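Hey, quick one: can you model this chain's 3D structure?
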Amino acid sequence: MQIELDKPVVLALAVFAAALVPGTAAAADMPEAAKTCADCHGENGVSTNKDHPTIAGASAFFLENELVIYREKARPCVPELFKEAEKKPPEKDHCALAQSLSEDEVTALADYFSSQDFVPADQSVDQGLADKGESIHAASCDRCHTDGGSLALDDAGILAGQWKPYLLRQLKHFKAGERWQPEKMAPEMKDLSDQDMKALVEYYASQGPERFQ
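Sure thing. Here's the predicted structure for all 213 residues.
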């Protein structure tokens, strides 16, 4: 099943893109709206939990985009992660949390985390699978996720150095049509086998130390 966002949401994303210039936000004190995110994603957005992605260094547009997608419930809301959190979030899941934020709060937290430095996860790599994943990336992913998935582009999150369990879960969500994705991405995901996805995850893990020195 291909999930499509409503037209008003697409228009909202266009407004965000026009208003924000990725990478220009100056590092500042954490805004109040970002504190709940920091409980799971780390105070500066660098996660130490394999189930939670690092959000530091992602573009402000990408972060706002994902919150809009959560508001629309166009990606899994993962309430189980909220239940497991040491500090219980004020809402039941990501979707409810995104819906509770004002536009100003969304902008503030996106600006804050985008201004932080991305730090790759410290994790082992299966080099044999990573080599296979490099070929898959070059053939299917590099057009949008350039430099080994390390660039924080407007609508592309950082893949290099991201936690492997998190990335694998998201690839499965994309393939199953459970998470909204750009139209151009769906055919590429459809052709990936389970082993291909594991290889891609290993490749991106291998790129962390190499791309973020």
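One thing worth noting: Residues 44 and 85 are 17 Å apart (CA to CA).
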